[in-house]
Every structure is written in structure tokens, then in C-alpha cells.
């Protein structure tokens, strides 16, 4: 992470260091059918099987499949019983992110620091052990039904964590070049953005990296507001979106309606070659939002010279933007679950530390076209 940029210097200066975060440990999604979801992420997205827990490992109420691609770990969890909190979550929200797990050196201290600053505990510090060592877990509540799990694994050398065993199905597809989680975006309700950005500042020591208002993120019909919160080392970035007044229903309102509350809107994953990654994903059936072809007629006038040939970017629908540090390439999938809620962003940074402000209008018009086909605009 280049801490020489003015924005990151400001974040490092403002962010408190009482909660050092080493990175994203894993993302847990609650799903209606974890086994089938696992095969989707393996076959289409190139994730590799890592571990599982369930009846065979002594767990009676749930099953979880753990997948990995480079530094990205997904945990897909489904209930094995008729009633319970996982069922309630799926009934209310559909498939979606339950836990954003953060890798820390000391899970007990992380829990103490955050709960002492007002966070609601969902898991007191708990040690899990097996022959490979022990992991310490703790957790706090954040927006909606989303939680942050703190994972301390410095004394563990096992496959994933105690309670899991290796999972090695015969057929797996090749990775598509996804490397790590760049950022994760949360959608919250009307007037709640500042509440949650203040939560991340007060409870977790984050600082505001950048903000966008309804003048930055608007079209003829809809608008939203967003603030990006980052921890001190820049490894964890959480943009928080809320709706803004517009002539029609915004994508944030649509999400809140169908998710039945606040939650994770999208997961941005990094690649070092977005053309190869998106080509592989598209060949495997992943659908992406498409901007009008006319976008590419003037984009280089706005962003200047880039290393890539414009033709494949145009053909794939990849967007381009530039800031003072460099440029970025990005593209967004259509929703990857049945409800119009969670999706993915694929991003390649060529020095840029921003979030594609110059693409907002084209992107949001593309989203509105999708909303119109769903009858939710």
C-alpha cells in the first residue's frame, strides 16, 4: 500500500492504532444450499476447495464449505435444521454476507477495545483447539445483521480452523486471477450513513478516506451518498452507502427493500490482469453490467494514456478512471444471488487509490437499466 498519497497520509494520521488489523481473514455467506453455492464459486469463479464442517465433523446444526483463491477465503454456510438463526437470516435476507472476518494478532484485545467503545458483542473471546494448535475468535455487531469476527490464528497451523477438515472434491476449475479483497461496500438506510461511519471511527479507529454526495453519484432519476472508511494501514476499506432523494427508486433503496435492511452490497476483488480475469469469468457464464459503447469514444480524453489497448476493454465493458496516483480498471457483475442484492466488483489498480468517481454516472445508468427490466426503478 502506497502511504505517500495525501488521502492515505491523512487516514494514517487520523486513524487510531488501538485495533491493528492484518487484513481480511474470510467472508462468511449464509446460503440456502451451501454445497451448490460452493460448486458455483468453484466452477464459475475459480475458487479452490479448502475445508468443510458438518455432520461428518460433529456439527449438527449447519454445514460450511470453505473455498480459497489466493488471499480470498469464502465460507458458505447452510442450516441443517428447520429453525434457528441461520434460517431466520436466509428467510429475511436471502443469500448474503453474514460475517466479515478480520485477521488480528489478539482477538481478546480486539473485542475488549471495540466493546469498551460501545460495540455490541456477538461472540465473547473463545478458543478453539485441535492437534494443529488453537484459534481465538471474538465478534461484534455492525450494520443490519452483519457482524465482524476477529480471528487470531498465530498459534494455528491447520487447514482452516479447528472443527474443519480438508475438502478435496475430484473436479475443480482453474483460478481466474483473483488475488485479495480490495474493499467491501455496505448499504444502510435513510440517514444512517453518518451513524455507521462514526461507528467505524469511534469503535474501530477508522478514518474517512473519501466521501461522495448526491452531486457526485446521481443520474437523471436516482442518487445516493457514500463515505469510504479505512483503517490505518489501508488494508481494510469499507464504503458505506445510503439513499439520496431522486425522481425514482435508487439501487440502494432496491437493495434495502429486497434485503430487508442494511447489509453488504458488493465485494470488490483485485486482479493484476482484469482483461484475462473478466474474459475467463465471462466464458464461464458470469454476467456483467454493460455501459453504452459511446462511453469509450471519449474515455481516454478524460483519463489520458493507459497501458492497455482500448479494444478489449470496450469489448468486455471494463471501465477506466484516474486519480492523482494513477488509474484503475473496474467492472461490476449483475447480482449473483436471486434477489437484486449482492454482486461483485473486479478491480485492477494501476496506482490509483480512489473508487472510480468518473465512472459513477455511466455505471449507475447501467444499474438503472437493470432495475427497469426488474420493474423496481
List the helices and strands and how they pair.
Elements: H1 6-14, E1 23-30, H2 34-43, E2 48-53, E3 62-69, E4 72-79, H3 85-93, E5 96-103, H4 107-116, E6 121-130, E7 133-141, E8 147-152, E9 165-166, E10 178-187, H5 193-204, E11 207-212, E12 223-230, E13 237-244, H6 251-259, E14 263-271, H7 274-283, H8 295-303, H9 310-316, E15 319-323, E16 326-332, E17 343-350, H10 360-374
Comma- or semicolon-separated keywords:
377 residues; alpha+beta; 2,3-Dihydroxybiphenyl 1,2-Dioxygenase, domain 1; 2 domains; nine-stranded mixed β-sheet; eight-stranded mixed β-sheet; 17 strands; globular
Describe the structure.
The mean pLDDT is 90. This protein has helices spanning 6-14, 34-43, 85-93, 107-116, 193-204, 251-259, 274-283, 295-303, 310-316, 360-374; strands at residues 23-30, 48-53, 62-69, 72-79, 96-103, 121-130, 133-141, 147-152, 165-166, 178-187, 207-212, 223-230, 237-244, 263-271, 319-323, 326-332, 343-350. Strands 6-7-8-5-1-4-3-2-9 form a nine-stranded mixed beta sheet. An eight-stranded mixed beta sheet has the order 11-12-13-10-14-17-16-15. It folds into two domains: 6-166, 2,3-Dihydroxybiphenyl 1,2-Dioxygenase, domain 1; 178-371, 2,3-Dihydroxybiphenyl 1,2-Dioxygenase, domain 1 (Roll), CATH 3.10.180. It is globular and about 60 Å long. The relative contact order is 0.14. Strand 12 (223-230) and strand 13 form a beta hairpin. The protein is α+β, with helices and mostly antiparallel strands and 377 residues long. The chain has ten helices and 17 strands.
